[in-house]
Every structure is written in structure tokens, then in C-alpha cells.
Write a structure and sequence with these properties.
Layout (H helix, E strand, L loop, with lengths): L4 H26 L7 H15 L10 H19 L7 H20 L4 H7 L2 H24 L6 H6 L4 H20 L2
Length: 183
Amino acid sequence: MHGSTTSLTASVSPWLLVLLCAVSGAYCLRRARGSVGAAGEAVMGFGMALMAVPLGGHDDGWRAPVLGVVFGGAALHALWLLRGGPHHAHHLVGSLTMVYMALMAGAGSGHGQEHAQAAGPPLLTGALLLYYAGYVMLGGTRLITEGGPVSPRSAAGRGGPPELIRACRLAMGMGMLAMLLTM
């Protein structure tokens, strides 16, 4: 190979994130029939995959507004679901984080590097990084410590094996963390 390994890594890494988010979204879509939050998680997974697609500087400005509207709608849906309990607060945070990243991506496209660097409030980005780092650490710990035997009947009733659902959520949390780190 004559190219540098950093250029190879830079071209492969975004596509791995796209694949990870798309597979998580597809799994959540498959189990959406049996679970209330799975449809929202599927939208989040596919939206994250779309947001992570590297355009190589060829963004025509359509992606940020479209994703902003999609995730704004997801945030309204998560806000509606908060009536059922605080579990959906994470969905609200995730949707609003995606709106924020879409806005920051839109502010950074075509306006020069100085505008892109000044666009995002570092305090908000830092708070979101801390939230998702904690979410990933907690999710990883739960995945390791709560993995006990589950009967096939109880796994089918809740939309799939609990450890696979936790792994899917953990993958999307890591994807969010990775996208926030690139802002």
C-alpha cells in the first residue's frame, strides 16, 4: 500500500459508523411491532446513519434542514411519550441532540471554517459528550452484569433478547458519542 494509514482510516471509519447505525435501526424496525419505543429507536438509527454518511464536501444544503425536521418530529413524539414515564426522556435527549447536530452541520456547510468552529456552543457540546459518555459506560456495564439466562418465551414477548436490545442501544449511544466528538 502506498497511501497513508490515516487516509485509509479516515475513509473507512465514517462508513463503519453508517453501517453500525443502519444495522441498529434495521433491528429496531424489525422489533417495532412488539415494543413501544422501538419505532423511535429505528428512526434514530436510520437518521444517525444518514447523518454519518460522508459527503466529501458535496453537501447541497438539503441534509441539515431535512434531518432537523425529522428529528424535531421525533423530539415532539418523545415529548408526547414522556406521559408514560421517564424512560422516554433519553429519546427526547437523543432527538434534540440530533437536531442540534443537524443545525451545527448546516451552519458549518458553505460558510467557511471560522463560522463552523464558532457555530456550536462548547458548553452544550461538552454536556452532551458527558451525557453520552455516561450513557455508554452505564449501558456497557448493564450489558455485562445483567446478562442472565432468559427463556425464549419472555424474549419473544418483549421484542427480542434483552441483551441484544441493550447492545443495540449501546451501539447507538456510541454512535452519538462518535458524532459529537467530530463536531
